[in-house]
Amino acid sequence: MITSFFLRAFDGKALLFLAILAAFAIAIPAGNLLFPPDHALHVPIYVVSLLGKYMCYALLALSVDLVWGYCGILSLGHGAFFALGGYAMGMYLMRQIGVCGVYGNAELPDFMVFLNWKELPWYWYGFDAFPFAFLMVLVVSAVLAFIFGWFAFRSRVTGVYLSIITQAMTYALLLAFRRNDMRFCVNNGLTDFKDILSFSVQADGTRSALFFASVAAVAVGFVIARAVTRSKFGKVLIAVRDAESRTRFLGYRVEHYKLFVWVLSAMMAGVAGALYVPQVGIINPGEFAPANSIELVIWVAVGGRVTLVGAVLGAVLVNFAKTWFTGVFPELWLFALVGLFVAVTLFLPKGIVGTIAQGWSALRQRRRSVRAEAGIDEAPYSGEASMKHQAAE
Description:
Layout: H1 2-7, H2 12-33, H3 45-71, H4 78-97, H5 110-114, H6 130-154, H7 159-177, E1 190-191, E2 195-196, E3 199-200, H8 204-229, H9 232-242, H10 244-249, H11 254-280, E4 282-283, H12 290-303, H13 309-328, H14 333-347, H15 351-373, H16 383-392
Antiparallel strand pairs: 1-4, 2-3
Helix pairs in contact: 2-8, 3-8, 3-11, 3-12, 3-13, 4-6, 4-11, 6-11, 8-11, 12-13, 12-15, 13-15
């Protein structure tokens, strides 16, 4: 049953996208590790890290598209789940520093020693083990999403009111993590990481492995999201998005469907944050900023809602543009981002991928109409053959 569920995710388009990801995951690390720096095919390590960060953003965008594009939940707080996953991984990385830190304390991270704390806070226990830390990446994000969703969806909060509440949630976490008594090094955040799984975080091989893991996470997230959206469950989600009251009237427990996809999306965002932290080398409360959550919604809108592939493409393109603009015209980036969002809203309401898909479908339909008028394909479109052809399409 589980096998058939995931097999729904695979068709020609999905396999093509996964093949591109696989080629990308192999080519970039190979370009860095196999070719010397003076070779034309050499990929510098900073490019590997930058592309790895883009892949983390792509997984985050996938999680937003899952709830916004297919269930109609416009979340302006998904940055909270991303940051929580990042903090869980950051706690593990801080515990790995041990005697290699400035103060050489095997139990306490350097910032705790500097602040004269005598013992490790209870909620830091267990983070010296990677399996526990990764489990917490999923559990913490899922628990917060479940608690928030349980109350919000049972109260039938929808539309702009739900979006505002999600933004309030991430802003509340921003304020909380800035407090000294949270013992997360306040605004400075967690940084100066040394090792992950006993490998140096700064080593080229580790950076390449983290990039590969990020691409693999995008592929797994894509398969899961596509399997969900192409199942009967996904059809109900679309019905909830388009006519929630009617779906509830038909007997579906709408809040249960919303809660499931909301928690799944939060866990995907948490994994994205966990992969992001060792590649950028820091996690601080700034990741909870509401502006970050708004920006990732723009990524999905630019790439195309209800496409999944569009969310990945939008995240990569917008962040590539951000990297270029902030390097060449740093003071113009925010204006460019706003202009991009306005232009997409006015001229590409379905996003890049959605517009291309719509245009391609219209072109194919026009070709079929022309051929039918010319009497070329009349036989295959009659009776049972016509029904089979429409089902295949």
